[in-house]
């Protein structure tokens, strides 16, 4: 099928696009710059200029496609509320374009956060706290099943990683350690972070596009939860810097999220879709080093 992908040149989109093309799909990728357009074209896709705030470009992309995968998000933690509002408006626009068509709409959500509990696909989205608005948006996507859209949400852990490129939340820990000379964790560091390799996550987005029933939740989780302290210790070992506890404020607004316990499971996704992560775990990618340099 021809698939419209927002965020096609982003950290997740850069893996989802080749995954789709390798499976025989065509990709129309939403891009914001000439460099992003060149990257999508080099990977075999067709670029479409625009972004989440350009609602006409979203309508145009959806109109040309047999299905949509929505990956774009600003990730600007200095203005997270604006990013959440932009995502919500984009979803409404895409939904209006797909209504009654039976076409698939796959949205990138977040695994829920319930401290002390390993969340599953059957747990509700987190709709409070700093990123609670994204949970409301994911709920809205699932509810599109009643409007003739084969909607699904692939919930991502906070650490989507690939050696040498991206580490999700751990990218913040790496950058802070490189800048300050200390590898820090919040509190006692026992809070657990789930993770998934970027390539395993990309495969699950394709599976959801092809096979997920309307209103389905999938969890792209490979590691149910490494402690934040173990992650900081691994980074500290690679960079040869000391490891210590720090208050959440050390990491700005995102520090409030860093303080939370958020383990998650993908057992139901693996059973229902025969999905099995095969790429390196987060700890292994961190231990291998090869971190991007600051600046």
From TrEMBL:
Highest rank taxon of the organism: Bacteria
SUPFAM superfamilies: NAD(P)-binding Rossmann-fold domains (SSF51735)
A cellular-component GO term for this protein: cytoplasm
InterPro entries: Epimerase_deHydtase (IPR001509), NAD(P)-bd_dom_sf (IPR036291), NAD(P)-dependent_oxidoreduct (IPR051783)
Annotated NAD-dependent epimerase/dehydratase domain residues: 3-213
GO molecular-function terms, A-Z: aldehyde dehydrogenase (NAD+) activity
Protein name per its UniProtKB record: Nucleoside-diphosphate-sugar epimerase
Protein's organism: Actinacidiphila glaucinigra
């Amino acid at each position: 099928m021809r698939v419209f992908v927002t965020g096609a040149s982003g950290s997740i989109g850069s893996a989802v696009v080749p995954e789709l093309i390798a499976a025989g799909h065509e990709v129309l990728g939403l891009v914001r710059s000439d460099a992003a357009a060149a990257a999508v074209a080099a990977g075999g896709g067709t670029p479409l200029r625009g972004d989440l705030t350009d609602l006409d470009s979203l309508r145009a992309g959806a109109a040309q496609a047999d299905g949509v995968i929505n990956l774009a998000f600003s990730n600007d933690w200095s203005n997270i509320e604006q990013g959440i509002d932009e995502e919500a408006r984009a979803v409404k626009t895409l939904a209006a374009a797909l209504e009654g068509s039976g076409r698939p709409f796959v949205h990138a959500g977040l695994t829920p956060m319930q401290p002390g509990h390993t969340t599953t696909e059957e747990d509700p989205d987190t709709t409070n706290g700093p990123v609670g608005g994204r949970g409301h948006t994911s709920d809205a996507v699932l509810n599109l099943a009643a409007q003739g859209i084969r909607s699904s949400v692939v919930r991502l852990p906070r650490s989507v990683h690939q050696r040498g490129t991206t580490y999700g939340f751990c990218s913040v820990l790496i950058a802070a350690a490189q800048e300050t000379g200390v590898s820090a964790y919040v509190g006692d560091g026992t809070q657990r972070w789930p993770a998934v390799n970027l390539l395993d996550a990309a495969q699950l987005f394709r599976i959801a596009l092809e096979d997920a029933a309307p209103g389905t939740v999938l969890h792209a989780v490979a590691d149910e939860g490494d402690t934040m302290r173990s992650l900081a210790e691994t980074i500290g070992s690679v960079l040869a810097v000391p490891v210590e506890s720090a208050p959440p404020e050390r990491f700005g607004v995102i520090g409030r999220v860093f303080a939370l316990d958020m383990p998650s499971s993908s057992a139901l996704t693996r059973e229902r879709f025969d999905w099995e992560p095969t790429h390196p775990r987060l700890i292994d990618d961190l231990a291998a080093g090869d971190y991007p340099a600051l600046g």
